[in-house]
Amino acid sequence: MKTLPFTGSGVAIVTPFDGNKTDYDALGELIEWHIASGTDAIIVCGTTGEASTMPDSEHLAAIEYTVKKAAGRITVVAGTGSNDTAHAVELSKKAEELGADALLQVTPYYNKTTQKGLIAHFTAIANAVNIPIILYNIPSRTGVSIAIDTLKELAKLDNIVAVKEASGNISYTAKLAAEVPELYIYSGNDDMILPVLSLGGKGVISVLANIMPKETHEMCEAYFNGDTEKATKMQLDYLELINNLFIEVNPIPVKTALNLMGRKAGNLRLPLIDMDEKNKEKLAASMKKFGLI
Question: Which of 8, 5, 4, 7 is nearest to 215 (CA)?
Fold first, then answer.
């Protein structure tokens, strides 16, 4: 049996910036809030954390800080993916040394690769570390999807344990659940938490949890406790807000939302820019419905 990194709501946490530096005080406050709110895991330095704009020294420092701040109270999953296999291996080894509980590995982007190349890429990373690896399938950002047959092959590796499934294709997710039962599944889309859980998913790696940590945890918990009616109602009630969190490229809206809440997410890094005012007003209106501002 493969090691399950966490069950429930894992927050794809933002990285608060103060100008051109990481604001560690603000990051620490967010981590404490998530622990107090019942979040089940922190996913640091992912897409929502703007890892693509962070040099290695800052990237690894954010992982180290998160691990130390968590102090074993919550699972820490470190994003260490790259489109350069050697770079992903190096980041992954260092994240393991820093105490990360698991790794999130995105498919190589821009240069992409073949399905055989994906097997070689992820196998190289898996062979370099001992901690669990969650594969991240998000073809809308990377331009490549992991084929089911590829996942069957990768599932043979002991420490490749799960998939963050963000294709938005529920038929693909169902096929994954049916044909590769060795791999756990996390929803990578907040508008599909319940559909993925209904197919045997173990939770979500969530943007919504950045602003509604307690509720995202409770949605998963309700489902796992058999209260599918409550969980479904929560999924549908939050749908407008979820959609508005993606009205512009993530993490522009969620950082804007946190700042509106007084949670000190700080600035975005170019090429990401401040949210369009009309979209900001739309986001704020959906937040007010839940008393977030």
Answer: 8
